[in-house]
Design brief:
The protein is α/β, with parallel strands linked by helices. It contains 10 helices and 6 strands, in the order βαααααβαβαβαβαβα. The protein has 2 domains: about 5-15 and about 90-220, HAD superfamily/HAD-like (Rossmann fold, 3-Layer(aba) Sandwich), CATH 3.40.50; about 15-85, DNA polymerase, domain 1. The chain has a 6-stranded parallel beta sheet with strand order 3-2-1-4-5-6, with helices on both faces. It binds 6-O-phosphono-beta-D-glucopyranose and magnesium ion.
């Protein structure tokens, strides 16, 4: 294992809860109920695709012009930005700082493969920007998760073959993206949502370098 590619929201920090809150508020405004189960489908999915999925849920995609949809996406993002305003290093999920330190000590390269355009801001607030050798810019991609493009781009930026990479995700779309990139996938969350991962752990506190290396060598060994 020469590199680890991290998802951000829901893996490094719990912004997944803020995304949910902001979409729910927009949903309430336009009369579409978003519950936790539906929200699982939005995790890892870009802002525009998330809005489309929400509108499709109640068959309302034709009810708005593209300009209205863009305004709704901006409104959601504005609320999201106020929710993340006060983030600090104390918002790192359990075990993440130790994991980043351990990976760095072993000279393993680190990449960020987040669909979020707010990613760099959040890394700054968490004070972990310097840990990352490469950050994939989601604005440069043609296809979002579950397409493998974001993880393939991350490996390319890091100069590491996909067979030497592990990807960590909290979303089903993200696990599909890692698997489609032919990397070893580790899911954080519930096995019922992340069943296709090579390994699922319930908490980020379970993510140790030993675990990552063991899952990587067992999965590569099986291939
Ligand atoms: C992903 C989140 O990381 O980023 C999604 O899981 C979010 O919920 C997506 O929609 C895009 O984020 P942003 O910050 O650019 O709206
Ligand atoms: Mg995520």
């Amino acid at each position: 294992m020469k590199a680890v590619l991290f998802d951000l929201d829901g893996v490094i920090t719990d912004t997944a809860a803020y995304h949910y809150e902001a979409w729910k508020a927009l949903g309430t405004k336009i009369g579409i109920d978003i519950d936790e189960e539906f929200n699982e489908q939005l995790k890892g999915v870009s802002r525009t695709d998330s809005l489309n999925r929400i509108l499709e849920k109640d068959n309302k995609q034709a009810a708005y012009t593209e300009a209205e949809k863009a305004a709704m996406a901006t409104e959601k993002n504005d609320l999201y930005k106020t929710l993340i305003e006060k983030m600090s290093p104390s918002d790192l999920l359990p075990g993440i700082k130790v994991l980043l330190d351990e990976l760095k000590a072993k000279n393993i390269k680190l990449g960020l493969a987040s669909a979020s355009k707010n990613g760099p801001t959040i890394l700054d607030k968490l004070q972990i920007t310097d840990y990352f050798d490469e950050i994939v810019d989601p604005a440069e991609l043609t296809a979002g998760k579950p397409d493998p493009e974001i993880f393939l781009t991350g490996a390319k930026q890091l100069g590491v073959d996909v067979s030497e990479c592990v990807g960590i995700e909290d979303a089903a779309a993200g696990i599909d993206s890692i698997n489609a990139a032919d990397m070893v996938s580790i899911g954080v969350g519930e096995a019922k949502n992340l069943g296709k991962a090579a390994k699922v752990v319930p908490s980020t506190a379970d993510l140790t370098v030993d675990l990552l290396e063991n899952v990587w060598s067992e999965t590569i060994g099986r291939a």
